[in-house]
Amino acid sequence: MGGLARLEYRGYDSAGIALVTDDRSRVATAKKAGKLARLAEALEETPLPAGTAAIGHTRWATHGPPTDANAHPHLAAGGRIAVIHNGIIENHGPLRDELAAQGIDFLSDTDTEVAGHLLGSLVESGLSLADAMRSAARRLEGAFTLLAVDASDPHTVVGARRNSPLVVGLGEGENFLGSDVVAFIEHTRSALELGQDEVVEITPDSVTVTDTHGNPVSREPYHVDWDAAAAEKGGFATFMDKEIHDQPAAVADTLRGRVDDQGRLKLDEGIVDEYVLKSIDKIIVIACGTAAYAGQVARYAIEHWTRVPVEVELAHEFRYRDPIVSVKTLVVAVSQSGETMDTIMAVRHAQQQGATVIGIVNAQGSTIAREADAVLYTRAGPEIAVASTKAFLAQITAGYLLGIYLADLRGNKFPDEIDALLRELDEIPAKIQRVLDTAAPIREVARSMADERTVLFLGRHVGFPVAMEGALKLKELAYIHAEGFAAGELKHGPIALVEQDQPVFVVVPSPRGRESLHSKVLSNVQEVRARGARTLVIAEEGDTVAADHAAHVFYVPSAPVLMTPLLSVIPLQIFALELASAKGYDVDQPRNLAKSVTVE
Ligand code: M6R
Description:
Layout lengths: L1 H5 L7 E7 L6 E7 L2 H10 L7 E7 L14 E3 L4 E9 L2 H10 L9 H14 L4 H11 L2 E9 L6 E6 L4 E4 L4 E4 L11 E4 L4 E5 L4 E5 L10 E2 L15 H7 L1 H9 L18 H6 L2 E6 L1 H18 L3 E5 H4 L10 E7 L5 H12 L3 E6 L5 H5 L2 E4 L12 H20 L5 H12 L1 H10 L2 H9 L5 E6 L3 H16 L2 E6 L16 E5 L7 H16 L3 E7 L3 H4 L4 E5 L8 H18 L18
Parallel strand pairs: 14-15, 14-16, 16-17, 17-18, 19-20, 19-21, 21-22, 22-23
Antiparallel strand pairs: 1-2, 1-3, 4-5, 5-6, 6-7, 7-11, 8-9, 8-10, 10-13, 11-12
């Protein structure tokens, strides 16, 4: 159950387990709609027998609502086989028809049950579980990590993967399979990554990997270098609050040790020819959600420092618009999990078009980290809360490092300018700490606003993606309608939304930056105030002019304009956390969401 709890970030709308017993009598299962705690309660009431091999699953519904019947595992071959699955079986329709024609009854709406019955019918035809899995994998289309146990083989678990991840944990007299190393990190730190279209059979003493035709595959184990304690709450009531407080360390760790002996910035893994990076004429950042907002922030800096045009594209839109990509395009894939299927598919599309791909990824050894040509790891540590916070700051930091690296390599900046930028970044973690230490007023205001129905967020320049990120946090945690706008866009339509007492957050740029930007945003503040808005202003310490325009002002330390998002977003994260908590919501696992969206 500990392993399943750690995997709940992948989905938490139902959970289940299946186990086989030494007497080869049956597969015992338990499954429940709802969070893992409901399954734990059910197991306390009706415990399962001691098993010799087991599989377990936490679900994020794709086919069929989250009900007990649709929860995994699903049984097949008269109850002899149990399967669990992540991903989407795209040809489940014709397979279901084919199996139904053979007289098979389906008990759920899921594509998983179809895969289970396909496997079951192959086992019943006389194949071993591993051979049946290889045969089934050849027939299945789409994305799957599929695991199965067979009552007549009580010491074996078989798994297969295509497009979804599967990792083997190598123990002593015990072996494990998981979608992520966190599933077994409390038992072993020795792991082995399964490749595309591979099938694995584990027993307590052996691990056998083949391709889907049965040809042996040799894979090298690696050591999992993760601090398990970092995944615990560390005294905070929620993972999200802890992760917000991890942010000084997340940024500092992402910056640490990036300069090589020659004083050059370095990537973590993989090699991109410097000649290629010198010749790129366009950068496309692909990402989803918060990671895409991090990309939008980084765009301002990368363009400014390198003079290379930067586009930021939602990964799920990228490949469907026939993007103009060439060998001179650098694609930067930003992802906390490295497992977001939309982003993975966009990476593959970009590589097929000849682009070089650099991943900005948090999870070591994840699919994007492995498939990108090079990786710049964000060292935020495990992010468990569904709402991304510390990964966002680390992604911006890594984006800035990449921009500085390119500006250095391409000769856009002199070495002393590069040093100055790195020094400015080095000062950010202490400033983040100050924002955290002075957050009591934003918490208090948030608690007083639990009954609001809609909140608007405005920003300009780098403050624009910060405004959108603030709105996303509020939507996903507090289920309140929230929208982020470019402040200048307001008078082109959205200002019609403003009525008496409408709360409007405004991210005000530094008065020491471009003077016009500061005064333009303050004009926007006046425009909404004139129409009755209640303005909540994020401003730089000492900006007394901004305070004059605010019902509430929240100060952040002063920083160079391009670095201010690393500070100004924090009050917005805390606002959403506190308001959602005041409403009694589960901020770590908001409704309808999954931490990692592993389906397209
Ligand atoms: O793991 P990724 O960074 O690729 O995830 C991308 C988005 O799904 C993620 O940022 C999502 O928007 C978060 N729930 C936002 O808090």
